[in-house]
Design goal:
Layout (H helix, E strand, L loop, with lengths): L2 H12 L8 H10 L4 H8 L3 H7 L7 H21 L37 E9 L6 E6 L2 E2 L4 H10 L33 H4 L14 H15 L4 H10 L1 H13 L27 E2 L4 E3 L6 E10 L2 H5 L4 E2 L4 E4 L7 E8 L22 E4 H10 L11 E11 L4 H17 L2 H17 L12 H24 L3 E6 L3 E5 L15 E11 L9
Helix pairs in contact: 2-5, 3-4, 8-9, 8-13, 9-14, 10-14, 12-15, 13-14
């Protein structure tokens, strides 16, 4: 670079910066185009977390800002053209009546009235087709799919059971040459602007729902590995985290609440050292009953299904945590709290709700633990005194933030169990378990940094297990052990209390064994 080139670069940098729309509009434009944060990040050479930060209020700089502004301006122009008022036929240019080949890109940036107007993009790496699930090398209107219907038909012949059934695309004038058979038309996905037309439209109806993402990923992996179940499963497990984030993006579209993905975090949620832990106590159960009734008893070890999946339904803070002290608990907010827990006097028959602690005194707990203690101290149970809350970091909250995400995973899990599809079952399990474990401080998931969410979801799983122990005790069962998120040992007819099965609301038998003391023989506990 010459001296003058360097000066030119400096002068260019000093020039006016490209204008950007407001952060909320940036996100809206991306979602209307059905683009994921990862797709935008790849095009701009940044990470998905950087795109999320731009949509939350941070602005890019330099050349990256210019390219980001160019992308947003292009999307805004495209949607403005899509929603432009229809002119009379007499005012239409003659070229608008020409038939448009379904596999050809549009001749100009503005789509023609009555034509497809879909952007065809060549993919650097194949992605699952939204229609058949087999790898496709093109993306049309933001969706990976085959341009030739014969490719879809050929792929469908080698796919396993559970093929994806696409919604039939509406046929409009100008999409095929005169006399062309309907079967020869290339499959395509409607744009958001098209879905708003027509009297038969149903509210919130989508051509491919969140469940399709899971099925398409499984089918695509099986097709890519020629039906090799082990190889397909290994590939799916490796991509479980980005796939879970993509599913979360899909289920959050049109959501009622905005979420800050990378907020400021208080010191209590930061690790004290590179390999250390933060100050949050999750109240993990680790309890075994000391004394059993006399005699030898058959103990059943029950396994709670999908503990972390069920725990996704919990009160999560939406925005940045705000500090407060000396205020009563507000059920409209959620976060972490410094409390002095109450004395627990039922250790002989039930575990302590705050887990096994070596040190007394105040500790930081999450929302589920605080709510559990408040519930147990209430008039219905009266098992302890209320906890003393000293200070809190909270934000406005909702229990349904991840509900669509949870239901999509649950339904896919239920279908996989019913059909004996172990590939999908293990894939779904990896998606929700890795989603929970990497939403905190992790190098494997940089799209979401919410250690408060991670602790809250884990604590909710522990609280759910504790409540099952309470239910067993109230129904006359003898609770022998409660461990982690999913292990509950009981004595008695547990089938009258819990439903048996593999569903997330059911339990299954993990083991049976004998324990206790035979009063006549003087045996020790087994």
């Amino acid at each position: 670079m010459s001296d003058f080139d360097a000066i030119d670069s400096l002068l260019a940098a000093v020039g006016p910066e490209a204008e950007l729309p407001e952060p909320g509009q940036r996100r809206e434009l991306r979602e209307r185009a059905r683009l994921s944060k990862a797709q935008v990040a790849r095009a701009l050479g940044v990470s998905p977390s950087t795109v999320a930060a731009w949509e939350s209020g941070r602005d890019p700089v330099g050349e990256t800002r210019t390219r980001y502004a160019y992308l947003l301006d292009g999307l805004a122009a495209k949607f403005a053209a899509d929603t432009a008022p229809v002119t009379s036929p007499a005012a239409e240019p003659a070229v608008a009546q020409a038939p448009v080949a379904p596999d050809a890109p549009p001749p100009s940036p503005a789509p023609e009235e009555g034509g497809d107007g879909d952007d065809v993009e060549a993919l650097a790496a194949p992605e699952p087709c939204v229609l058949c699930g087999s790898p496709a090398s093109q993306r049309v209107a933001g969706f990976a799919q085959h341009l030739d219907p014969a490719d879809c038909q050929a792929a469908a012949a080698v796919l396993p059971a559970r093929p994806v059934q696409p919604a039939p695309a509406p046929v409009r004038p100008g999409t095929a040459a005169a006399g062309e058979p309907a079967a020869a038309r290339a499959p395509r996905t409607m744009r958001p602007s098209e879905r708003s037309k027509g009297p038969a439209r149903r509210a919130f109806q989508e051509p491919a729902g969140p469940l399709d993402l899971i099925g398409q990923a499984v089918q695509g992996a099986l097709a890519e590995h020629r039906g090799d179940v082990e190889a397909a499963s290994a590939a799916l497990l490796k991509r479980a985290i980005p796939d879970a984030m993509r599913l979360l993006d899909e289920t959050r579209k049109g959501g009622r609440y905005d979420v800050i993905a990378h907020p400021w975090i208080p010191d209590v949620l930061r690790k004290q050292s590179s390999r250390g832990a933060d100050q949050i106590w999750e109240a993990r159960p680790k309890w075994t009953r000391c004394d059993l009734p006399s005699g030898v008893h058959e103990v059943t070890a029950l396994d709670v299904n999908g503990a972390y999946l069920s725990a996704l339904k919990t009160h999560l803070p939406l925005g940045q945590l705000e500090h407060s002290a000396g205020l009563p608990h507000d059920r409209r907010r959620a976060g972490v709290h410094l409390i002095t827990p109450p004395v627990w006097e039922h250790e002989a028959v039930l575990p302590n709700p705050v887990g096994q602690r070596d040190e007394p005194g105040p500790l930081w707990v999450t929302e589920p633990t605080l709510r559990l203690l408040l519930r147990l101290s209430g008039p219905k149970h009266g098992l302890c005194d209320p906890p003393v809350v000293h200070e809190s970091y909270t934000s406005g909250a909702t229990e349904n933030l991840l509900e669509k995400f949870r239901v999509a995973l649950k339904d896919a899990r239920d279908t996989a169990i019913a059909e004996g599809d172990e590939v999908t079952l293990e894939y779904v399990k990896a998606m929700y378990s890795k989603f929970v474990s990497t939403m905190g401080e992790s190098n494997y998931n940089r799209e979401l940094y919410r250690p408060d969410w991670m602790h809250i979801v884990r604590s909710q799983a522990f609280a759910n297990l504790w409540l099952k122990a309470l239910k067993a005790h109230d129904e006359g069962l003898t609770v022998v052990r409660a461990m982690g998120t999913d292990e509950l040992h009981v004595i008695g007819d547990w089938r009258r209390v819990f439903a048996e099965g593999r569903g997330v609301t059911e339990v299954k038998v993990k083991d049976t064994y004998t324990a206790g003391t035979d009063a006549a023989a003087g045996q020790e506990e087994g």
